[in-house]
Design a protein that fits this description.
433 residues; alpha+beta; Conserved hypothetical protein from pyrococcus furiosus pfu- 392566-001, ParB domain; Conserved hypothetical protein from pyrococcus furiosus pfu- 392566-001, domain 2; nine-stranded mixed sheet; six-stranded antiparallel sheet; 31% helix; globular; UCP033563
Length: 433
């Protein structure tokens, strides 16, 4: 099943540790433009490696990375380890603090067809190409993707709980989340992690584009290397692992924004009648309450008006896309098939490439974009259940792109990993059970 290895991590020099929160950065798709400006203003913030700017961003990141290594802005740990990563947070309206427990390690970059790492949503081609180009240029990974494993016995938690008592970093991030990082370098304990995960399949929760970039680079490097052994650094990818059966996993919704659609509000609402029950709302604020816990229900927001739209239950039989029942009944599949395809006329096969669709996690920001005119209208969605994600992955099919938002997001910059051979090389056989 899934082969993992400890990481010989690169981390910020100790002189940065006291203010490490100034050098970490959120994943690019959850940060506002104002936050981005502040991050880029700091010349040592990790965003310059994870999302470089300029006409040749990948080459720019490569040059900066070499500068940081030479000037010891970042340094490589002498020994590999399993990096324990806990995030403490509260859900809206929640009194009790939650904690998402996990660890960061290298995983072999399995191709989808191998059935070891399972995906649940489609990707956007340009984003994959950008990630591949950056990884190829730098041979460096600045943020882990997020993988889920299923362990009903929670076998690894005691070791992680013990390690987190002696943290490397303990900080509050941009989300108000307390982020704590620790490391396990004991060979015997690392073997336990390798053994437990070695019996599992991994469900990719977040980072589909970065993971696909790793697959693409591995294939390219393997093809170019006549002495390929499968042990080279390019075969591996940095991932944050959490137990899918933990009570503190939460998936938040990602809303859809539309622009330059050649249909008026009246034309759209008229077309909707063929598949949806349409109810005009007095207040936009009503939307989330009205669609919550309602199957196949969404909010539709125009600059002047808002609607609740619900699929007519009998219409589900007209879902003639060739996917199993478990996929057809997922809310976002209903949205993309009956609304985006049938009502707006953007075929399912073209949606992942479409410039007419934008994705926004923040509801307030989503509504602002419609009100300001930067988007024509928006569809407000609700969260997908963990059980649905697991069912979709195991079916071998995928949901539409940007279907899930696992909260809280991981941070970039707490640690980095290199797949450049001289920096990756280590007798990892010592960690094999």
């Amino acid at each position: 099943m899934a082969e993992i290895l400890p990481i010989k991590a690169w981390r910020y020099n100790e002189r940065f540790s006291a203010n490490i929160e100034e050098y970490t950065s959120p994943l690019f798709d959850v940060v506002s433009s104002k936050q981005r400006q502040a991050l880029y203003a700091n010349p040592y913030n990790s965003i310059h490696l994870s999302v470089p700017l300029g006409d040749s961003p990948a080459q720019r990141a490569k040059i900066l990375l070499e500068e940081w290594k030479q000037s010891k802005v970042i340094q490589q740990d002498k020994l590999p380890g399993i990096y324990v990563y806990y995030q403490y947070f509260k859900f809206p309206g929640q009194e009790e603090e939650s904690v998402r427990k996990g660890f960061i390690a290298h995983i072999r970059a399995y191709d989808w067809e191998e059935g070891v790492v399972l995906r649940h949503e489609n990707t956007i081609s340009k984003a994959v190409n950008d990630r591949t180009e950056l990884l190829k240029a730098t041979q460096f990974q600045s943020s882990p993707t997020h993988g889920l494993y299923e362990d009903p016995l929670h076998l690894l938690e005691p070791y992680m709980d013990a390690a987190i008592e002696d943290p490397i970093y303990d900080l509050e991030d941009y989300q108000g989340v307390r982020e704590v990082l620790a490391v396990i370098q004991d060979v015997t304990l690392i073997k336990k992690f390798v053994e437990v995960i070695g019996n599992k399949k991994i469900i990719l929760a977040d980072g589909h584009h970065r993971y696909e970039g790793a697959i693409a680079l591995k294939k390219e490097m393997e093809k170019a290397n006549p002495l390929h052994s499968g042990k080279e650094g390019y075969n591996y990818h940095m991932m944050y692992f959490t137990n899918a059966l933990s009570k503190n996993l939460r998936i938040l919704p990602t809303h859809r924004l539309f622009r330059e659609i050649a249909l008026s509000e009246e034309e759209i609402t008229n077309r909707l009648q063929n598949w949806f029950i349409v109810r005009k709302l007095n207040e936009v604020d009503e939307i989330m309450e009205l669609i919550l816990q309602k199957q196949w229900a969404f909010g539709l927001v125009f600059p002047e008006n808002a609607y609740k739209i619900s699929l007519i239950p009998e219409k589900i039989k007209e879902f003639d896309h060739h996917v199993p029942e478990v996929i057809k009944t997922v809310d976002l599949m209903v949205l993309h098939y009956f609304f985006i395809d049938k009502v707006l006329g953007i075929p399912m096969s073209e949606q992942r490439f479409s410039d007419h669709i934008e994705y926004e996690r923040n509801l307030h920001r989503c509504l602002q974009k419609v009100e300001s005119g930067s988007a024509s209208f928006a569809v407000i969605t609700k969260d997908v259940s963990m059980n649905q994600v697991l069912d979709v992955c195991k079916s071998g099919y995928t949901m539409p792109q940007k279907s899930t938002y696992f909260y809280p997001k991981t941070l970039s910059g707490l640690l980095f990993t290199s797949i450049e051979e001289s920096e990756f090389n280590f007798p990892y056989e010592a960690f094999m059970p």
